[in-house]
Design goal:
This is WD repeat-containing protein 88. By secondary structure, this protein is of the alpha+beta class. The chain has 7 helices and 31 strands. Strands 18, 19, 20, 21 and 22 form a 5-stranded antiparallel β-sheet that branches. The chain has a 4-stranded antiparallel β-sheet with strand order 1-29-28-27, with no helix packed on it.
């Protein structure tokens, strides 16, 4: 007797369910549901040829499995890697790991290998912004972090646990392009695409003042003494210097560059402002004399993205879309061509978007379009290490005063806090130094460690490149003053 339609339907459904379950068990979790559904659809067209009790599913062909996995946005190794990175928190080592995180050496090797072979740099990922993070800084003795984002917010973070302490209110109505903090960490300033610049009190979060311009403010920087704010204005290619207390323009230089200004920066004495442009030029403006002290037209082969002074104020570092960084002697306008580097190359595979020098001028940190953060030895002019992990363009970097931490901001909506305290003990860094034939000595001038080549005579090279440069500058100034006195 023929079975009623309902019983035939339920029997077919049971066979389909059995097929899906069997395929799930035989092929593993990844991609098996797609494979099972395809098998069911095939049976519904042709009809089963074997009874449900004796049915044994065939193995899924590799081609089918590959096509199924190809529908996922992430490959399984990448998913596994992201899970491992998310679970590991180097700043909270006492936390209990997630249940799915297997406690084996294989997982640890996979985690550390994500950065670079033989490197071990702990890091913490900071989540809190909903759009690209455009700017980042250390503040309050390296215990707090400051960030600005395209989600129109400026946030203050706790560096220890990575939590957001304050979201500054009366926020901009457009993406934040850059933010800056005073040396004493009392005030911050931020510019945005709404053509305004705002200043807040860090402790209270109160908005101190707001100024609107008739053009975009692509860069804003507090002077180290907190008296001035330098602004780079887009359309009229102007450099504007404001008094930070009475909020008035002290200097406004229109058409300072031939093309748009990309960034500006004060020197440590708050007396000079460097600006870099889309046209590849560098200019240094003197605040007191209100005149251009230095102008270099073709400093790079492409647009210059950022600039920063060394703590001594003698050198200016620039990063460019031509994939290089350069260090300039601002007294002569020439590349620093003695003692070590001329141009820092082979550090990034794409445009370099930002640069920052450590307080003792021994390290230069850069970030680029290739999603990496590069750590450079300034004295010897080579890349010590490359930090990998961001999923998109690195927009800004900063280094703590004690040189233990690096902060990076990215278009992937996150910041990363990297622990580089033990960077010189990393096998890869040791291998690089050994391959380059470097030996470490103590500088007799500033008491900082510096590297020399094994072929150099240790008795002749007793000071670091910065002290040697200072000596040459002092000798040049003394000789020039002596000649002037003779002429008089």
């Amino acid at each position: 007797m023929a079975s009623p339609p309902s019983s035939r339907k339920s029997s077919a459904q049971s066979r389909k369910t059995s097929s899906i379950s069997s395929n799930w068990a035989s092929t593993g979790r990844s991609g098996s549901l797609l494979s099972g559904s395809r098998r069911v659809s095939g049976e519904s067209r042709k009809g089963p040829t074997v009874s449900g009790s004796s049915y044994r599913p065939r193995k899924v062909p590799w081609a089918t499995l590959v096509r199924a996995l190809g529908r996922f946005k992430l490959f399984l190794p990448e998913i596994r890697r992201d899970q491992l990175l998310a679970a590991y928190d180097p700043l909270a080592l006492d936390e209990v790991p997630q249940p799915w995180a297997e406690q084996d050496t294989t997982s640890q090797k996979t985690f550390w290998g994500d950065h670079q072979q033989l490197s071990k740099i702990p890091f913490k990922t900071l989540h809190g912004h909903e759009q690209a993070v455009s700017s980042c800084h250390f503040c309050v003795d390296d215990t707090k972090l400051l960030s600005g984002s395209y989600d129109c917010t400026v946030k203050l973070w706790d560096a220890l646990d990575g939590s957001v302490i304050r979201d500054f209110q009366q926020r901009p109505s457009a993406p934040v392009l850059e933010c800056s903090v005073t040396a004493d960490s009392r005030r911050i300033v931020a510019s945005s695409y709404d053509k305004s610049v705002r200043a807040w009190d860090v402790e209270t979060g109160k908005l101190l003042w707001k100024v609107r311009h008739n053009t975009f403010i692509v860069s804003c920087k507090f002077s180290p003494d907190g008296k001035y704010v330098a602004l780079a204005l887009d359309l009229d290619r102007a450099l504007c210097i404001m008094d930070s207390k009475d909020v008035r323009s002290v200097i406004r230089v229109k058409d300072h560059h031939r093309k748009s200004i990309m960034a500006c920066s004060f020197d440590p004495d708050s007396q000079k402002v460097a600006s870099v442009s889309l046209d590849g030029s560098i200019k240094i403006w003197d605040v007191t004399s209100q005149a251009t002290l230095l102008s270099i037209k073709k400093a790079h082969a492409n647009a210059i993205s950022n600039c920063c002074f060394t703590f001594s104020g003698h050198f200016l570092c620039t990063s460019s879309w031509d994939k290089t960084l350069k260090i300039w002697n601002i007294h002569s306008g020439e590349l620093r061509n003695r003692g070590a580097c001329v141009t820092l190359v082979q550090g990034h595979a794409g445009s370099v978007s930002t640069c920052h020098v450590s307080r003792d001028s021994s390290l230069l940190i850069s970030g680029g379009l290739d999603k990496t953060v590069a750590i450079w030895d300034v004295g010897e002019g080579y890349r010590k290490l490359s930090l990998k992990g961001h999923d998109d363009w690195v927009t800004d970097v900063a280094i703590s005063n004690n040189k233990k931490w690096i902060l990076s901001a990215s278009k992937d909506k996150t910041m990363r806090l990297w622990n580089i305290e033990e960077i010189d003990q990393i096998p890869l860094v040791k291998e690089n130094k050994k391959a380059r034939g470097f030996k470490v000595k103590q500088c007799k001038g500033c008491d900082r460690p510096f590297s020399i080549h094994e072929g150099d005579d240790p008795s002749e090279v007793t000071k670091c490149v910065f002290c040697r440069t200072d000596e040459r500058n002092q000798q040049a100034e003394a000789s020039s003053s002596g000649e002037e006195s003779k002429d008089a």
